[in-house]
Design brief:
Number of strands: 4
Structural class: alpha/beta
Radius of gyration: 18 Å
Distance between the termini: 11 Å
Order of helices and strands: EHEHHEHEHHHHHH
Number of domains: 1
């Protein structure tokens, strides 16, 4: 038996964390892991940074400062004996915002927003937004032991594709659909899902079961990219040090 994989997660919000954890359970199978939410924190107010993409922005800058200007230099995250992997989540629709939309005054080193491109293909936008996210971290490229999770347009696209594969938005290209969340409330009454942590947790097993289907290269490109990069960054199992 190997030691549990230690994964740290930075996500826009609690519902995103539920979806990402379901994906991890699918990808890791029987391999044990412990998921620690670094942001947002489990509290009613989510701390001084708030939540959403603005909170991710503030978290990245704060942790990069603690690392001497680079997130990868932060020993509380990347130091020996801490986390095996860090997951950084940001929804692709952030590419359509301006810093002023979040009451932020960008630093000279921050990548430019908005940075949205025509969709399809969704990757044209997420490629640009990845550069912006990494600029908040003081990084020019994704650091070791770090995986970016960037659904297009947002995590709800993965939820719709997982739970409602026959929804009309799927035929229009869910990764370029303007507001995937709106489709959750358009389902038959018994199947509807609200964007609430409790609702997402109640469907977590279905999200986990659907992950292999939506992460195919012919399905949702950003889900496939997240899976590919996660499995590539995955460290080899280590023997359980508690076993004789």
């Amino acid at each position: 038996m190997s030691d549990p994989l230690r994964i740290a997660l930075v996500a826009e919000g609690p519902t995103d964390a539920v979806v990402i954890e379901a994906a991890l359970r699918s990808m890791l199978g029987v391999r044990p892991f412990v998921l620690k939410r670094l942001f947002p924190e489990d509290s009613a107010a989510f701390g001084p940074m708030g939540t959403g993409w603005v909170g991710v922005y503030k978290w990245c800058h704060a942790k990069a400062r603690d690392g001497g200007g680079k997130l990868s230099g932060n020993q509380m995250i990347f130091g020996a004996g801490n986390y095996d992997l860090l997951l950084l989540h940001l929804d692709g629709d952030v590419a359509g915002y301006d810093y002023a939309d979040g009451s932020l005054v960008p630093l000279p080193t921050d990548g430019a927003l908005p940075c949205a491109k025509a969709c399809p293909p969704p990757a044209d936008t997420t490629n640009e937004l990845r550069k912006v996210l990494l600029s908040w971290c003081g990084e020019a490229a994704t650091p070791p032991k770090t995986v970016v999770c960037m659904p297009s347009k947002n995590t709800e696209a993965w939820v719709v594709a997982s739970l409602f594969p026959n929804d009309q938005a799927m035929t229009q290209g869910i990764e370029c659909y303007g507001n995937p969340e709106s489709r959750l409330g358009q389902q038959p009454a018994a199947a509807r899902v609200r964007k609430k942590k409790r609702d997402y947790l109640s469907r977590a097993a279905e999200l986990e079961q659907a992950w292999p289907r939506i992460a195919l290269p012919t399905a949702l490109g950003e889900a496939f990219r997240f899976q590919t990069e996660f499995l590539t960054a995955l460290p080899a199992p280590q023997p359980n040090t508690l076993q004789p």
